[in-house]
Structure formats: structure tokens, C-alpha cells
Amino acid sequence: QITTLINHKDKPKRSDKTLQAIQRVGQAVNLAVGRFVTVGEAIANENHELKEEMSVACIEARRAGETIAQLTDVASLDHPESDSHITIFTDKTGVVKAARLLLSSVTKVLVLADRIVIKQIITSRNKVLATMEQLEKVSSFQEFVQIFSQFGNEMVEFAHLTGDRQNDLKDEKKKARMAASRAVLEKCTMMLLTASKTCLRHPDCESARINKDGVFHRMRLALEQVIEIVTDSRPNGENEMAPISIYSGIREFKNKVEGLRENLYFLSKENLSTMLEVILEHTEDFTDSAYTSHEHREHILELSKQAKMELEQLVSVWMQAQNQKTKDLMEDLEVAILKTCQCMNELKREVHNAATSLAADLLKYHTDHMVLKALKITGVEGNLEAVAEYTCKLSEQKEQLVEMCRLLRHVSGTEPLEITCIHAEDTFQVTGPQIISAAETLALHPSSKIAKENLEVFCEAWESQLSDMSLLLREINDVFEGRRGEKRVYLSLPRPGKHNANLKALKPVKLDTEEQAKIAKLGLELHLLTSDVDSETEKWEDQENEIVQHGQGMSSMAYSMYLFTRGEGLLKTTQDLFHQAEIFATEGTKLASALHALSDQVHDDEKPLLLLEAEKLISMCKQLQITAKASAQGKSATFTKVDACILKTRNVMTLLCQLLPLCCKLLRKNKVGNGCLKPAPPWKEDRIRTGTNARTPERRVDTLGIKSLENHVTNMTFLESK
């Protein structure tokens, strides 16, 4: 909204309609700042060490918001009676200054609030660590029950705080690391419970002690990693050295090779040779692996040899082209670039096939969990020899699965999936020995129910990780085949190529700055209309009403189109916008059907008006669909199509603003459904806290075991009877 105010065209005259729109934006900014500052002040009152800094920043923000509202107030401007057009701002520099002050003070508030959140997480972690130390030292069941109950509550608090933080992380890599650490903590909480109980029951058993120590150690590492992510730091100032995968190496290598088309001098031949050497060194993880098939190994070696030859040829032509740029040499260079990239693509596909076929075979082979079942049976029988035999088999299985994770990491395709592979590798590495120590404990104490329960918990963790690997393999294949991107699909935004076979031939285009400026006014109007629609839908008591749901969905999609006019949001290209416009029109047609259904239930003088508006809505949605599906060749035609789509969307939203109150009125009169209007809340404070907004779908990050933790805490009473 601030950007819209600052970037408006400085024309000497503007219509009343435009002036009123800008006044509404100014007021909206001031109201938003007021709500924001109220939260900031509440945070300041709860955190005395930062109260003064926070209060000053809040006062500055409030003052700037009020200044913007005053400077965009129609009443404060001159209105020449002889002219229907009026001056937009008497002092634009004042708005610029106020906007700068506002952004500066809002940033201060956010940074201070962020420091408080980080402090809360660190404090919560410290509480958990202190209680863990107590748990390690307990010697009686009664004391353990009391302390574990406290530990469970502290872990629930930590899970909530870190879950919120995970939601707020923008870096997908950090988000994946946080999810992995929280998953470890969730699973280890149950392991800690049974391992500690086993140790208390069998205090002289060495394998039980090893089992328990392993759980505590892993939990401490996970807690430390969460703090590293939150504070963006490493112990002893170390830099994180992420292992380079074959995929990322090939991607970077190809980018450099293709860059030669634009610039023959931006890198040296030694750089390219080194990059290829690193990639080929990583392929040795496949060729040296005992689990890679002979066929895959031969193909990888052959393609590695070919890649070296193609690069030699490329370097030869490249060096000649640097000295003499003839047409023939440039054509030879283009051929060499294409052949090198093609060879790298084939190598990429070969390592992908090698890794995924191995993973599919291993997961299928181990799906029956025969070794785990045998360990449970032989443990209960107290058969130490048989347990030793099956622990050897489990160790072999662990090595296979660890190797599978290492190879999958090379072909995972995205950094978050790479991290998931590393997490899976660590899980198999740690859980395997823990199952073995739990099985040995049971074999030594075959009648111990708690030792049996402990082995069950560790086996379940292993089975769960195998199940997760099947999902991970599917995701890796989806990324490779282009069926999945790193971004989540937003609302009903379709995946490219899914709804229209002709779309594949069209090249996605982004708008440049000048084009964005041209449609900024339309975008602003669309934004204001989404606010109006949201405001209308909030008045309905029955939020499950079909009309409300369609209205909210359309508002959400219109808002994403508004963000597109700003160069923001998940609609990145014009093709994305056209997809969204089609779905928006489809949603509008569904709303029209709901209006017809409503008209059959009501008896009122305004019923004909409702039917007329419904028909108008159908017609407008059809026009929008036709526009969105029409082909557009060239930059000018594409921009015209974008402009038309947003204009038609705006017209539909204008009609929707009229329809919603009309439907509400008819429902109220005829008492159809479960009611319509709800009483207006005295203050929208709740919305600040809950963030309920139709166009901002709640980000649902799995709480990673908060429910499980709560269950552990509430089900502790059985221990006292032991």
C-alpha cells in the first residue's frame, strides 16, 4: 500500500474516484499501523529489558501512520468548485518522509520482537536441558514420574515455539533443517521415556545404559541444532560445510558452459575443468558402491569418460573463438556447448536411475520387517545367540539403507530434499545400534515387560523412517520429472500444463517495471475490492455457507492477482496469472449456481434482482475465461491480455461486493439456512492475534508430535503403579 502511494503518477489532476481510492489506502495504512503498534506495545509491557526501545519505535510508527492518513485525506485538500478534478497531494515529499519513518520504525519493532522470540526459544531450550540432566540422574520411579511430567510440559512449550519459528523461516533450507531437528525431538521423547524406565528397572544392565545414553545424546544434538538455526550461528564460529551433490554440481557446471554464449572471457578453462573433476569424483560414490548394479556402473563410467572428451572439444573451440570470432567458429562453439550439456544431462539421468532403482528395490525388500520381528521373538525367548545373528543382519540392513540415503542425496534435486536425505541417513545410523542394544537388554531380561516395550518403540521408529523414505523417493522422482517445484501450490493455482494442453507451447513471460507501473492502478482497485469482499464475508454468521466460501475463494485469488501487479506473490509469470484467472472464473460460475439455488428458496420482491445479478455474473465469468484462454503472441499482445484479465477480474469483484450484502439481506428476511449476520465484534483485536484472513491461508506446519508429547504427559499415571 505504501509503495502504491509513493509510486503514483504525479499528474496535476485526478478524478474524485481515484482520489477517494488513495484516501482509503492512506486510512488503511494508518489502521494497519495502529493494530501493529498495539501488538508491539503489548510485547513491550511483557519484556521490560526492551520496553524503552520498543515503545519509542511504536510511537514513531504511530506518528508516521497518522501523518500518511492526514496527507491523503480528501478533506484537507483544496476543492476548486469550478473543476471536477482535484490535485492529488499538496505535499508528496511529506508522504515520502512519513513512509520512510514508518518503514524504519516498523523494522525496528520487528527486529526487537524477533530478539524476544529468539530469547524465548533459548530460555525454553535451557529449561529442557536442565530437566534432562535431572532425568539422567534419577534413581527411583516416583522421582522419574514427577520430573518426566515436568519435562513433557517443557517439551510441549518448546515444540510450539519452534513450530511457530519454522513457519516464519523464509529460507527453505533452514526450514527443512528445523523440521528434521523437531522430528528427532518428537521421536526421542518417547524413546527417552521407555529407555529410562528400562534403565531404572535394570540398573546393572550395560546395554540398557548404552541405549539410554544414546537417546540423551541425540536429543542434545537436536536441541543444539535448533538453536543454531534460530540464532543463525555455528559453534566456535565454524562455517557450515554442506556436501555438494551431483545435481547441484551439474546445474552449476551447465550454467557456466551456457554462459559462454554471452561472454567468452568470464571464466578460465581451468575453472570448468575443476568443476567437472569435482562432479566426476562424486560419481565415484556410485561406481564404488557395492549396491550399484553392474549395468549402471558401466554406463556412469562411460558417460564420465565422454564428459571429459566433450569438455576437451569445447575448450579447444572456445580458445579459438577467443582469438577469432568467425561465424563458423561460433557455430562450432554452439554445437560443443549443446553436446557438453547433453552429455551432462545423460549423466544426471543415469545417476538418478541408479539411486532411485536401488532405493525402490531396498524399500520393497525390507517392507516386511522380518529382521525386526525376529529380534522381538528371539529377545522374548532369551536366545542370545539368535539375537546376535539377527543384530548382524540388522547392521547389514542399516549399511544398505545408509548407502541408499547417500546416493539419493546426490539426486534429490532441491536443498530441502537433500537435508531430508541427510536426516534419514543419520536416523538409520543412530537407530540401528539403539535397536541392537534394546534387543540385547530384552534377551538378557526376557520376562521384562518394560524391556519389551522399549524394543517396540525403537522398532517403530525404524519402520516409520522406512515409510518416510517411500514418500521421499516419490518426491525426488516428482522433482526430476518436473511434476513438483520448490514452492507450494497456492490455493487453486493449477500446475503448469495440467489444464490446457496448448499451454506447453507458450513461453512464460514476466512483466517489466514499466508494465507493472501501468497496471498498478488496476491492481490497487482490485486490492481495495478484496478488502471489501473480506469485510462482507466476515459479517456472515454461517461461515460454512456455500456463497461465503465461494466469495472467500474468489477474494483470495483476486488478491494473488493484485500481488502479481506488484511483482510479488506466487504468480511469477503471465502464464501463472492466466491460469489463476481461469480458476477465478470457474469459481465465479460455481457461485452463480449457488445463487440460483438460493433464489429457489426465497420469496421476495428482490428475487428477480438476484437472478439478474447471477446471470450477469455468469456472463462476466465466461468473458474472463475466453480472455484468459485466448492466445497472445509477442510482448505487446501479452500485456494487453494481462490488462484485460485484471480489468475483468476487477469487474467481477465489483459485482461480488454488491451480491454478498443482497444475499445476506434475502437470507435474513426468509430465514434460510443457519442464519446470516453475526454481531459485529467491539474491536478486531482477535484478528490481529489469530491472523484470520481469507487471502492469507493458514500455514499448517505439522506440530511434530505436540499431541504425542501431551499424551506422554497425561499417560504417566501408570508408572506410579509400577
TrEMBL record:
Pfam families attached to this UniProt entry: Vinculin
Record protein name field: Alpha-catulin
GO biological process, one term: cell adhesion
Keyword check for Cytoplasm: yes
Keywords: Cytoplasm
Subcellular location: Cytoplasm
Species whose genome carries this gene: Rhabdornis inornatus
GO molecular function: actin filament binding
Superkingdom of origin organism: Eukaryota
Family (UniProt): Belongs to the vinculin/alpha-catenin family.
GO cellular component entries: cytoplasm
InterPro entries linked to this entry: Alpha-catenin/vinculin-like_sf, CTNNAL1, Vinculin/catenin
